[in-house]
């Protein structure tokens, strides 16, 4: 028997991320099991644990995974929960494959971490290249949603664009309340940019677009 750990957020506001991951991992295990290694067949068992998207809980979950002797771990969902978990998995030599964690610094935390997505710096550098080479804006406005992830990405994009010779004003910040959305929409109409970059969720972007069109 080979145990594969599945660590994700499976409760609370962001449980849909973990639920998608759970379905994917279980489907993959069902398709691949049994696996033949060294002439022997091994069934795959998925060990799933909910870290609730909480770093303190994630640390405990990582310890539980290690005690159950999983061969590797898929997860965790967030950068914060992944970072604290890696310390445990590094100690026990358990490889970690993350489908979500994107902070660049996580890759430097050990030799057991692998990711399935671009890190934040790679993502922003690709966006900056697209803006420079495909859009070439005359007036670009950057907007964050006041969350750490959004602020860091927007600030880094501004830095990369500056290196390309594209200067932008101080980014706008928006908290997704009706009042804030209205104010930002009005400011955008006054500023009259030809390009807007808003680092936020789909529903937040939709709210801002709807208000601006009104």
Distance between the termini: 59 Å
Look up the CATH topology of the largest domain: Rossmann fold
SSE string:
EHEEEHEHEEHEHEHEH
Main β-sheet: number of strands, strand sense, barrel status? 5 strands, parallel
User: Roughly what is the average pLDDT, rounded to an integer?
Assistant: 93
* Count of distinct strands: 10
- What is the 3D form? elongated
* Low confidence ranges: none
How much beta, percentage-wise? 15-25%
- Count of spatially separate domains: 2
Q: CATH class of the largest domain, please?
A: Alpha Beta
Helix content: 40-55%
Class inferred from helices and paired strands: alpha/beta
Largest sheet, spatial ordering of strands: 4-1-5-6-7
Helical segment tally?
Answer: 7
Query: What's the gyration radius in Å?
Result: 21 Å
Instruction: Please name the fourth-level CATH homologous superfamily of the largest domain.
Output: Response regulator
- Please tell me the CATH architecture of the largest domain by its name: 3-Layer(aba) Sandwich
InterPro entries: Leu-bd (IPR028081), Peripla_BP_I (IPR028082)
Protein name: Leucine-binding protein domain-containing protein
Pfam families: Peripla_BP_6 (PF13458)
Keywords: Signal
């Amino acid at each position: 028997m080979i145990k594969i750990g599945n660590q994700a957020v499976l409760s609370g506001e962001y449980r849909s991320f973990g639920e998608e991951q759970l379905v994917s991992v279980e489907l993959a295990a069902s398709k691949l099991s049994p696996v033949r290694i060294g002439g022997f067949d091994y069934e795959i068992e998925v060990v799933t644990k909910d870290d609730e998207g909480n770093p303190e809980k994630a640390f405990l979950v990582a310890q539980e995974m290690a005690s159950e002797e999983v061969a590797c771990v898929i997860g965790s969902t967030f950068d914060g929960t992944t970072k604290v978990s890696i310390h445990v998995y590094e100690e026990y030599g358990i490889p970690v494959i993350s489908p979500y964690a994107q902070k660049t610094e996580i890759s430097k935390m050990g030799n057991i971490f692998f990711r399935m997505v671009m890190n934040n710096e790679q993502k922003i550098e690709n966006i900056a290249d697209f803006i420079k080479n495909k859009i070439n804006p005359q007036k670009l406005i950057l907007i964050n949603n006041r969350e750490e992830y959004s602020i860091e990405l927007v600030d880094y994009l501004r830095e990369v664009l500056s290196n390309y010779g594209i200067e932008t004003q101080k980014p706008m910040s928006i908290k997704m309340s009706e009042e804030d959305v209205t104010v930002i929409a009005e400011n955008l109409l006054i500023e009259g940019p030809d390009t807007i970059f808003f680092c936020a969720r789909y529903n937040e972007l939709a709210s801002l677009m709807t208000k601006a069109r009104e």
